[in-house]
Amino acid sequence: MRPYELTLTAAADAIRAGRLSPIELVDSVLERIERLEPHLNAYATVTAERARLTAREAADDVAAGRLRGPLHGIPMGLKDLIDVAGVATAAGSRVRADHRAQADSAVAARLGASGAILAGKTHTHEFAYGLITPQTHNAWDTGRVAGGSSGGSAVAVAAGTATFALGTDTGGSIRVPAALNGVVGLKPTYGLVPRHGVTSLSWSLDHVGPLTRTVEDQALVLAVLAGHDPRDPASLAGPARDYRPGAGEDLTGLRVGVPRNYYFERVDAEVEAAVRRAIDGLEALGARLVEVEIPMTRYIQATHWGLMVPEATAYHERTLRAAPELYQTDVRTLLEAGELMPAGDYLRAQRSRTLMRREWARMLQDVDLIAAPTVPATAVKADEEVITWPDGTVEAVSEAYVRLSAPANVTGVPSLSIPVGHDTAGLPIGMQLLGRPLGESVLLRAGHAYERTRPARELAPVV
């Protein structure tokens, strides 16, 4: 097995045991980037020289017995919203063409301290305001969308051009591309991972989280990322935790909520079948299935847009007025629409979110987690703008992809997307596990137990 094919956990074990050098791993990943980038375009910037220098330093540290932890010597991709000192943060936009970060973001600083090595900055939909990432191609079929807005991060992990990556998630932007590219994506509890130094889309909905090959890898990254940072007003205080899920597969006593409404409505038949088989797999491991009613479903979309649109417009107010021509048409239209929203609509969305959080808390008293599709359809072709459902309903692709992921952003609960199979076209299907606030350990335990019953996942067969 070539080094770039290793999961984070396997690579960390090999480095610790002296079977693999960080230099070998980084060189392998950079060579993979050089070969596949013409097909995928996952990276906005590749920091090859910096990565090789850092790998040599890591190799010296490991040889001298100064191993900092499981991320030491591991190459990563960071979404091009996340500041790294001295590296451009273009946010996928001409607005930021000349921007270069002066300091590390909180997450980049924590990853750097852990010994992780930056391979490059990954592409995002412009300012994360979209679910497609149009410049990046799906790792399983380059004629299809990567998903967004963390499409570059998901594709890099799926193709082996990063051992792990970070993305951001405001309405599904980690989980959607994770599902469409067959990798694992986590949107943590709101406030668990600090956002200082990360370009905002919508401050009350934004999250930072990892994309990895396996659930076990997720736990290793989350342990480094999580923790209070006073520079983020939403950051949660609390002690450091070990998120590793353990080796067991027994889920006896775990109550898994299966939605009777919303999450299986207007969902592709193959996606539904794969997710229901995965839920049956959780039951076979000892979990008890409990039907649940998702509350306030008619208000989800309005609440999500009612919060996101005015917050995004407020963030971009100055540059939108000074240089509107630098924005892509789709993003500029959304930002300009935000200027027309009455303040009362934003206040009503805030009130709706408060009520929705209360109702979700009540629902989650009866179950330990909820299992549902991550997205209602697999990756569409790049030129497809709508999905037509069997009942004749026509839905914009971006609205379809955000529909099942947005509730976790509105309520702030954690959501983990894991691969659960492929459709007949060979495209990945994702299932999301949603839990109580700060319930990441439960989600990782369930996801890891399911994962252990499945064959080891291969990298995407990029042409």
From TrEMBL:
Alphabetized SUPFAM superfamilies for the sequence: Amidase signature (AS) enzymes
Coiled-coil residue spans: none
Residue ranges constituting the Amidase domain according to the UniProt record: 24-444
Pfam family, any one: Amidase
GO molecular function annotations of the record: catalytic activity
Lineage top rank: taxon: Bacteria
Stored InterPro entries: Amidase, Amidase_CS, Amidase_dom, AS_sf
Stated name of the protein: Amidase
The organism of origin for this protein: Streptomyces malaysiensis
Taxonomic lineage from the root: Bacteria, Bacillati, Actinomycetota, Actinomycetes, Kitasatosporales
